[in-house]
Amino acid sequence: MSVNDLFDKSDNIELNDSVDIEDESTDQVAVAPKREMESPEFQALVQELSSTMGVEGITYAPNEVIVKLNPSIASTNQINALQTSLDAKVKESTQTMGIQLWEIQGMSVAEAIALYGDDPAIEYIEPNYIGSINTTTPNDPEYNRLWGLNNTGQTGGTPDADIDAPEAWDIETGNNVVVGVIDTGVDYNHPDLNDNMWTNPGEIAGNGIDDDNNGYVDDVYGWDFANDDNDPFDDNSHGTHVAGTIAAEGNNGIGVTGVSWSADIMALKFLGSSGSGSYFDAIQAIEYATMMGADLTNNSWRGYSFSQGLRDAIAMAGNAGQLFVAASGNENNNNDTRPAYPASYNLDNIISVASTDDDDRRSGFSNFGSTSVDLGAPGSSVYSTIPGGGYGFKSGTSMATPHVAGVASLVWSDDPTLTAQQVKDRILATVDPISDLQGITVSGGRLNAYSALTGSTPPPVVPVIFDDFDPDVDNSQWSNITK
Ligand code: CA
Ligand code: CA
Ligand code: CA
C-alpha cells in the first residue's frame, strides 16, 4: 500500500498549510506543510499506518526512514525544516539515486510518514523494513511446542535439530495427498483434524447400502477392521496423535499443525483400544488403502513374526504405486539381526523409520539397522492431537514415522508426477547426517523436509530382488535402498 492511497482515503484530515518553523541556522523562515498532530484524524492515520507496517512479522528499523527528496521542489530551507521537525540527521546516502537513510528522534516512523507522506518536497518517505530469510510460520497457538518441526532450543535441546518445516512451507504446505493412517483409528471430529479427513466420494453415509460396491457398507472416513464396522473412531489415542503429526490443520488458529497443513487422512483402524491387533485385520486395512487409492500409508506399529500374507499386502500396495512408511520399533534392537514387521520386509516401497530426540541423538528406545532402518525422524516428546479435541505428548518410533509420512505427502503435493520410489529416494538422499545414526541406518541421517522438497531426484536405485523373504537368512544380504 502506498502512502498516497492512505491519504486518498483520509478526506477528513486537514492540512495546516503554513506552520512556521524557526530554524536558527538560517535567517530565513522555513516552511513545511504540517498536519495537526493532536487531531483524532491524524492519530487515526498513524494507527492505520502502524498496523499496516507491523502485521504478520513485518518489522522495520524503529528510528529510521528512507527518504527521497524531490530536487526540483525541495529547497535547502525546506530540507532543513523537515529535518528539524523530525529531529533527523542523514545517516547514509546512496551514491547515484538520491535516496537517503534518515535517523529520526523527534517522532515515530508512522508519525513521520503520516506527517510528510504527501509533502511535495518529498518523492517518498517510507519505513526501513527489515528483510530476513524467508520462512513460513503458521498461526497455530501451540506451534512452538513442535520442536521436531522447528527447534529453537525451546525444549532445552539443540537449535535446528529439526526437519526444517518452516523453510519447507515456503515451498509447499501440502494439498490433498491421501494418507492412510493404519492404527487405532482417528478422532475425525477433532477441530484440528476434521477438515483434513479423507471421505469416500462414492459412499452415501448412513443409508445401509454399499454405494460404491467396495465390500464395505457406509465407509465414509475409512473402516474399523478391529471391530468390523464403519466407525474408525479412535478408542486409544495413538492413531489420532499420529494423524495430527501428519496433517493437523495448519494455520487455522487452533492447536498444532501437521507436517502437511492439509493432507487427507484416511482412518484405517485395525488396532483395538488396547493398542494391539491381528495381522489379518492389518492385511485388510492395507488392501482397503490400496483399493481406495491412498497415496501412502503410515504404519506406526510392529510385530516380530513374519507373515507372507502381510508381505503380500504391502507388495500389492507397492505395485499400485503406494508408499508404506513404517516404524522400526521401540525395543532398542538391531532390526538387521531381529527383523520387526512390517518395517523389515525387504520391499522397495517401505520406508523404515528410527526415532531421534531434540538434540539429534537416537532416542534410547529406537530400533536401528544399517540395512533395514532407513532414516531417523523426531520421535521423543512429540506434541499432537488426541481424541476429544485435546492435545498431548507421546514418544516412540510411532511418532517419528508420521513426520516421514508428512514429508512424503509434501513432496508429492509439490510434484505429483514422482513415483513412490522417487519420493523415497528423495527423502533418503536429503537427510541431515547425524553422528548417532551413522553406520546404523541406511541413510545415516535425520529427515529434512526442506531438503526433500528442494533436492534433486537421485539416479534410480537398482534393487536386489529376492524372490522370497526368509527371516532366517543373513539380513546383511538385503538391499533395502542404497544412496
Ligand atoms: Ca462402500
Ligand atoms: Ca452407504
Ligand atoms: Ca491447527
Describe the structure.
The chain is an alpha/beta fold and 483 residues long. It has 2 domains: 3-129, Peptidase S8 propeptide/proteinase inhibitor I9 (Alpha-Beta Plaits, 2-Layer Sandwich); 143-482, Rossmann fold (3-Layer(aba) Sandwich), CATH 3.40.50.200. It is built from 11 helices and 17 strands. The strands form 5 sheets. The protein has a 7-stranded parallel sheet, sandwiched between helices. It has a 4-stranded antiparallel sheet with strand order 4-5-3-6, with helices on one face. A two-stranded antiparallel ribbon has the order 1-2. It is elongated and about 90 Å long. Residues 1-33 and 457-483 have low confidence and may be disordered. It binds calcium ion (3 copies).
Order of helices and strands: HEEHEHEEHEHEEHEHEHEEEEEHHEEH
Q: Give the distance, in angstroms, between the N- and C-terminal Cα atoms.
A: 49 Å
CATH domain topology of the largest domain: Rossmann fold
Count of alpha/pi helices: 11
| Helix proportion | 10-25%
- Count of the domains: 2
- Give me the Rg, rounded: 30 Å
List the helices and strands and how they pair.
Elements: H1 3-8, E1 15-21, E2 30-35, H2 40-53, E3 59-69, H3 76-86, E4 88-93, E5 99-104, H4 109-116, E6 122-130, H5 165-169, E7 178-183, E8 222-224, H6 238-247, E9 264-269, H7 279-291, E10 296-299, H8 308-319, E11 323-327, E12 350-356, E13 375-378, E14 382-386, E15 390-394, H9 397-414, H10 420-429, E16 432-433, E17 445-446, H11 449-454
Parallel strand pairs: 7-9, 7-10, 8-9, 10-11, 11-12, 12-13
Antiparallel strand pairs: 1-2, 3-5, 3-6, 4-5, 14-15, 16-17
Helix pairs in contact: 2-4, 6-9, 7-8
Bound molecules: calcium ion (3 copies).
